[in-house]
């Protein structure tokens, strides 16, 4: 692979933005040079467009094999490149079979053949009865494990109990691998389904904050007992921030993500029947979400991930607007960066903040922070070039996801991804893909 020099007035490094020339050799960043450095290489000067580390999204449901009609590796990883995402970590459920054994992991890996357009790693799953599979899955290279404390929506991925977690967490602690947890301790009361099926307020009330708060309290207690790294996925309840702050102050190995949709939308914006907004935990009130923003900017919330969970339009009940039967999940993979940037820049955030929230800190969870997530010498040249000032209106035809269903349709967003590089190779130049099938499987 030839040496390439990539030059910009705005290179976003861990120290901040500065003019620089990046020398890319053998898939890595060989040098970070002054902007006007003389180099013996072809120079691509992107002017005032910003160069950032490729986005890393460790919370994606790709759904293949088994539910490829929902998404699939081809469409998901194309959408990733178009949005500047260079690494995804796929969740263990929504595919069939679920990733709860080595045999199932190998089936999933085989499904990537010929359609891996960005880097992809896998989380293993923790379900009742699979404790004996944990160490074999670790040996097979999963990046960590995911558990639900409430029904996952998929019957073949039942929720783990405290007893199940107590069997698994000492093993993960010994290996230093994270346990990702969907934190809702739910009750079995379906009385809400007898009320207005199209009412968003009714759906919101059906998944109260206390479900999250109780589950997070449980996980903090277990984290302290076992010293197993615990990661809380898609935090939506601001009521848990105080307990999280105390746990982190104690030095517990606890990390937290929230989702773009909790930071961009608020419950007050969602009209009845708009089932494209249905997710779990639900999008909460504006005052709650402003607290999430404050916690993200203060570093209490570590990063932001999409929880990309697409489904065919009929499963989203778009025509009936029925929240009681619609699939809960938001499709947003390609829009991860502009959605967050649109809301973040209104709050005075910088591109350096964006790189920390979308690249640097997610790389730590996935165990790849020694080589991905930063613009620094020796790191993989997984990069994106962004026009941070340019805006666009989301239209269905520009979406690379299999289904053009998203609450972001018709939203005006800031931040256009112009180029995406994978290990120093240009793989996307808006609006076209220049090289496909360049992704690699990530193994811990």
Automatic annotation (TrEMBL):
It comes from the Bacteria. Its cofactor is Zn(2+). Pathway: Nitrogen metabolism; (S)-allantoin degradation; allantoate from (S)-allantoin: step 1/1. PANTHER family: ALLANTOINASE. Its EC number is 3.5.2.5. One of its GO terms (molecular function) is allantoinase activity. Catalyzes the reversible cyclization of carbamoyl aspartate to dihydroorotate. This is allantoinase. It holds the Pfam family Amidohydro_1. One of its GO terms (cellular component) is cytoplasm. Belongs to the metallo-dependent hydrolases superfamily. Allantoinase family. Homotetramer.
């Amino acid at each position: 692979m030839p040496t390439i020099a990539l030059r910009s007035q705005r290179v976003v490094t861990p120290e901040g933005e500065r003019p620089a020339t990046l020398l890319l050799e053998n898939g890595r960043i060989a040098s970070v040079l002054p902007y006007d450095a003389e180099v013996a290489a072809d120079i691509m000067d992107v002017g005032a467009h910003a160069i950032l580390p490729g986005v890393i999204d460790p919370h994606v449901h790709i759904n293949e094999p088994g539910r490829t009609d929902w998404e699939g590796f081809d469409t998901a990883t194309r959408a990733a490149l178009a949005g500047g995402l260079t690494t995804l970590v796929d969740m263990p459920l929504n595919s069939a079979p679920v990733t709860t054994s080595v045999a199932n992991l190998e089936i999933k890996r085989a499904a990537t053949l010929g359609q891996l357009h960005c880097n992809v790693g896998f989380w293993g799953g923790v379900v009742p009865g699979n404790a004996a599979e944990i160490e074999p899955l670790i040996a097979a290279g999963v990046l960590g494990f995911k558990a639900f404390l409430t029904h996952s929506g998929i019957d073949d991925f039942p929720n783990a109990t405290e007893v199940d977690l107590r069997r698994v967490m000492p093993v993960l602690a010994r290996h230093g691998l994270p346990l990702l947890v969907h934190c809702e301790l739910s009750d079995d009361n379906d009385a809400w389904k007898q009320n207005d099926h199209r009412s968003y307020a009714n759906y919101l009330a059906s998944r109260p904050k206390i479900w999250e708060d109780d589950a997070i309290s449980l996980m903090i207690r277990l984290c302290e007992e076992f010293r197993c790294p615990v990661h809380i996925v898609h935090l939506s309840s601001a009521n848990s921030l105080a307990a999280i702050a105390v746990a982190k102050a104690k030095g517990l190995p606890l990390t937290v993500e929230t989702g773009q949709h909790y930071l961009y939308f608020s419950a007050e914006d969602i009209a009845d029947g708009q089932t494209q907004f249905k997710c779990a935990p639900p999008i909460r009130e504006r005052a709650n979400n402003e607290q999430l923003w404050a916690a993200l900017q203060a570093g209490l919330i570590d990063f932001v991930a999409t929880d990309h969970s697409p489904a065919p339009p009929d499963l989203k009940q778009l025509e009936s607007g029925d929240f009681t039967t619609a699939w809960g999940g938001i499709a947003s993979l390609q829009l991860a960066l502009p959605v967050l940037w649109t809301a973040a820049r209104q709050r005075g955030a910088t591109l350096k903040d964006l790189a920390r929230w979308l690249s640097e800190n997610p790389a730590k969870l996935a165990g790849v922070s020694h080589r991905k997530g930063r613009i620094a010498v020796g790191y993989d040249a997984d990069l994106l070039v962004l026009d941070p000032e340019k805006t666009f209106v989301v239209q269905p035809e520009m979406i690379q996801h299999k289904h053009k269903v998203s609450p972001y349709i018709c939203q005006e967003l800031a931040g256009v991804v112009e180029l995406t590089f994978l290990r120093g190779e240009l793989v996307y130049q808006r609006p076209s893909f220049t090289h496909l099938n360049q992704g690699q499987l990530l193994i811990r």
